[in-house]
Amino acid sequence: MFVKPMGILERKDREKKKMRGLILKTAMKLFLEEGFENVTVRRIAERIEYSPAAIYLYYKDKDEILYAIHEIGFEKLYKQQQTILSIKNPWKRLKKHGSNYINFALENHEYYDLMFIMRGPAKKIKEKEEWEIGLRSFEFLKKNINECIKAGYLSKVNLDVAAFAFWSLTHGIASRLILC
Amino acid sequence: MFVKPMGILERKDREKKKMRGLILKTAMKLFLEEGFENVTVRRIAERIEYSPAAIYLYYKDKDEILYAIHEIGFEKLYKQQQTILSIKNPWKRLKKHGSNYINFALENHEYYDLMFIMRGPAKKIKEKEEWEIGLRSFEFLKKNINECIKAGYLSKVNLDVAAFAFWSLTHGIASRLILC
DNA sequence: TTAATTACTGAACATTGTTTATGTTTGTTA
DNA sequence: TAACAAACATAAACAATGTTCAGTAATTAA
Description:
The structure is a homodimer.
Chain A: H1 6-34, H2 41-47, H3 52-55, H4 62-82, H5 90-107, H6 109-117, H7 120-128, H8 132-150, H9 159-179
Helix pairs in contact in A: 1-4, 4-6, 4-8, 5-6, 5-8, 5-9, 8-9
Chain A binds a DNA duplex through residues 2, 4, 8, 12, 40-42, 50-54, 56-57, 61-62.
């Protein structure tokens, strides 16, 4: 019996990932430029110089590409939020947290739509039960708010309620800024 | 030369309006049940027992039906908001204003999506420059907030900023409640 | 009754997402 | 090497979509 040479399997794996990455990158670019609904699988395929059918060998359907982008969006948001850790004053940090969030929404507003506003992906997320990535950002916010409470900047408020209201406010501002 | 008998023209006009109403009502019902994107022109036509092409004699395209619903949604919201006028205390009234808004969003959340969350119609609105109906509700909010300020419930805040923040907060809460 | 206007439709068009039957390249085994 | 298997990729087709248009039926006018 033969042992399969690892090099080949690894290369295949690499190539598969590369292909998925290529599709994703191309789809992202198109989605950001023209919005999810206005991009066809055919156009993505054309860009990467493959047949439309090839896409379906790497992603189950069009929605799954969107879902992958969704994950990337949350990753971006989380990374951007981490930058405020250098601010020592909890209150200043929380304010920066909010303005950062709004800036993120404005600068990546197509991402933002995909993440929070459009209903389409929301369905997908519930099915998949993979909201952890989104929740991570919310936990980070709660941590920041908690430190504001401990430092006496917010008096006698329930942590969850405060976090919910804070996110709602920033999200509301962002949505209104995007839509108007 | 003959003068056209008015009765016939009036009847025709009535019938035209009736037909538009029938299409709208049917489309609304379907949109509310299944979402704009999942309803086809063919299904609307089928429901009213006309050919798909007939729809296009009364509405330019599918989006225009959505736009008409959009207007109705704002009308509903505005009417519902008016009910708080009976509350004399400005602060209580403002709080009711907010909870009403959230209730409206939850109870008519498909409407609400069409009005604020989905991007599709937003494009349409900008083209048409008919945001007046939406703005009317915002003006009403500003009036309420202004009276809170005058009555000393809100100290030293800019009216527009306060109104903006208030709507953002309620909108944010509503959006999050709908999406989660 | 005939002509003109209006209301409507059937059939078709161009696109969409997706699947399937088929070929083609690459890897494995003898 | 030759023969077989697996992976990869595609062309072609499918079903469904929004929309249009030539033509038909119904209504109104002369």
